[in-house]
Amino acid sequence: MVYAIVKMSGRQEKVAVGDIVVGNRVEGKVGDTLELTPILLVDGEKVTSAANELAKVKVSAEIVRDEKGPKIIIMKYKNKTGYRKRQGHRQPLTRFKVTSIA
């Protein structure tokens, strides 16, 4: 089985052809393709991590859709003063589909 470890949105993800991966929001329209930076490539029994060999490897992904992550609630509270603050956050995300590892 061929798979790669790619650097995406400040994180490392294990991807294979046909996988759907969620990462931080990327500029682009649905259907656009982008190149992901490989850090490691496993091709059957051979493991490639040398920088000069990885420069030849291209991992392509297609943007499937933009979405938002789960709601995170942030609470601030100070005892005996009546201070309470509630804030929410939803991280903007992009869903990718890996199309090729070559």
Care to give the gist of this entry?
With 102 residues, the chain is mostly beta strands. The protein has one helix and nine strands; from the N terminus they run βββββαββββ.
Please write the string of helix (H) and strand (E) elements.
EEEEEHEEEE
**DSSP E strands, number:** 9
The end-to-end span amounts to 13 Å
Poorly predicted segments:
none
In terms of quaternary structure, the protein is: single chain
How much helix is in the residues?
under 10%
Global outline: elongated
Global structural class: mainly beta
**Gyration radius over CA:** 19 Å
Major pleated sheet: 7 strands, antiparallel
Residue-averaged pLDDT, rounded? 95
Number of contiguous helices: 1
Strand content: over 45%
Explain what the structure shows.
This protein is mostly beta strands and 102 residues long. The protein has one domain. Helices cover 4% and strands 64% of the residues. Strands 1, 2, 3, 4, 5, 6 and 9 form a seven-stranded antiparallel beta sheet that branches. Strands 7-8 form a two-stranded antiparallel sheet. A hairpin with a 4-residue loop joins strand 7 (72-78) and strand 8 (83-89). The protein is elongated. The chain starts with a strand and ends with a strand. The mean pLDDT is 95. Belongs to the bacterial ribosomal protein bL21 family. This is Large ribosomal subunit protein bL21. One of its GO terms (biological process) is translation.
